[in-house]
Records
---
Amino acid sequence: MPARVKLIVLDLDQVLWDHHDATSLKPPLRRVDATTVEDSTGERVVLRDGVEDFLRRARERGAYLSTCSWNEPEKALAVLRAFGLDRYFDLLVIEPHPEKDRMMERILNHFSPMGVREEDTAFVDDKEEMLERVRRRFPGILTLRFHPEGDVFSFSDLGKILLGD
Ligand SMILES: [Mg+2]
């Protein structure tokens, strides 16, 4: 892992999974298989390849993990729990507004007593607008766009960048 990255902050929709809006899901959720969750209408959420492996290795390397997601918290949490992934995160920040700079402030305040500064932090999101919003406020954060036309579009490549695989 690059020496400076101590905290990895991950968006959820279209990053951890392919679905664009966990808030639109209709509970209850049902786990279909290792990488698929289905809501009560048959709407499916598919986990990206290699997510759990990435989270596990990040923890093993001593990185802190947080989410930073624009969703109704109970909806996105239900998806994380259905996949059994909530336990990997030190902090779950999921709020029903797009102001990710405000969410990031909360996240940095939470990890500051552990010696984490913005320069030690990486933020991964699919939307350039969100990355820009966070960069404007916290220019020291390493931002990565998870998108076919972005900086990275797989968790194995994200591992190479952030975990030095
Ligand atoms: Mg997203």
Note: The two ends are 8 Å apart (CA to CA).
---
Amino acid sequence: MGTQHPDGVLLDSRRPYLPSMRPALYKEYKDLPSVAFQIGAAAGEPSALAAIGSFSDEERAPDLNTLERILHYSAGITKKIRGYAFRAAACTGALYHIELYVVCGKISGLDAGVYHFDPKGSQLLRLREGDHRTALAEASAGNETVLHAPVTIVYTDVYWRNAIKYQARAYRHSFWDSGTILANMLAMVKSLSLRATVVMGFVDKDVAYLLGIDPMEELPLALVPLGAEAAPAQKAGSKLAEIDPDWEPKTNGRLEFPVVSRIHQETSLTNPDSVSAWVQASTSKSEGPKTQVNGLHLNTLPDSALPKDSLERVIEGRGSSRAFSRDPITLDRLATLLDRSIRPIRTDYRRLKALAQTYIIVNAVESLAPGVYQVLVSSEEPRLGLHRIRLGEFRSRAAHLALNQALGGDAAVNIYYMSDLVETLRTYGERGYRLAQLEAAVMAGWGYLAAYALGVGATGLTFLDGLVEDFLGDSADGLKVMFLLAVGVPRK
Ligand SMILES: Cc1cc2nc3c(=O)[nH]c(=O)nc-3n(C[C@H](O)[C@H](O)[C@H](O)COP(=O)(O)O)c2cc1C
């Protein structure tokens, strides 16, 4: 797809990236009415490990404070260290190119409207007055979940802010970096006992029109309806007017990334009929055979031994590990992390089986021989197991595969989330590319959170696609790497 590392190195030498080119990290609107957040201290419960990878079925609406917490602990600034603003979720190159919008009816404390979430000012800025949820529902071909949700969060990507450094690979980062935010958001929503679904079937340009953005410059990525009400949103009387709000920073058209534009266009849906057809075709496919876990069974930590830290505290304490000691982690911690990470995501295109398949390079896990394993997952007990592919000491190989970064070699485990892209594209059409990347990233985001909840460290890492696939050999035939998460004991 043209998004691999150029000549096996991180940055394209023909398009150098200098620190002085680092774009602004925030989309800043001018002169819009604002609603300032009042977050207060992090909640002491429920525990992070009870929320990560789980979904609630409760039908209720969030109030303003609940919505603020969801946004803050997904994409807000959670701490400042030496003037550097840390965000709730990890992001490639700390470039923070993903933007969040709120489309809501009236909820307690907040008027109906379309808002932009401004992490820098910790506030919502109103782009449109009134209830425009039916416009979003129409863009998603009458999606019932969107129609009944009091609030829907819209994810977009101002992709030039990432592509200026990573060039075409930024299209993967669209989904990786929205996936880590989404992992936090879904866990937050569960911890606040609300419903959430990830909706990927929508007319890209219609969602962009509602937000007042150019869909080729700022890419709509996902809709996340939150909460549920019995009565559906009512259609607004008048036609949706065009809006053209002013913001900074703009590229002024100087930057062009044709590979990204082309892939995004090819994976876009252009009218509600094509959305309906896509959702219909995607959900009617059969599940395929059930997986049996017949390798080494993995036992997670018993409930009584699970750390009880709350999700909000875990997110506040999170930060990608910058170095790992070579110390081992325990097998039950690894099992618990994998258990929370590899879970089905509730979506509009759902079959039960996850698109991602998981392989691990074990460098140092107590009671587990170093080597390469496939993680087996079943919907029945025993849920998790390991299939041994190759035993051996692969620290230097793991570092090499992670684009020659020591973090890969020093980690206790490298978790590779892989996907059969050919099969995914056959099932979901071109848009399947987005789903495969996003699902893997959400799972890795859950893995990130679970690692911190379990008292170990983690970081996303980039990788050399072809070499990983060669290294895994026949056992991962046809699979492509989507995301690499390295987990280990942080070096002080
Ligand atoms: C998908 C993804 C890939 C990443 N790749 C690397 C990497 O190759 N090397 C690295 O040192 N950090 C990597 N990171 C970590 C980011 O640099 C880090 O998230 C960012 O600097 C923000 O810091 P924080 O996660 O501590 O908040 C990656 C993060 C993500 C989400």
Note: The CA atoms of residues 262 and 435 lie 17 Å apart.
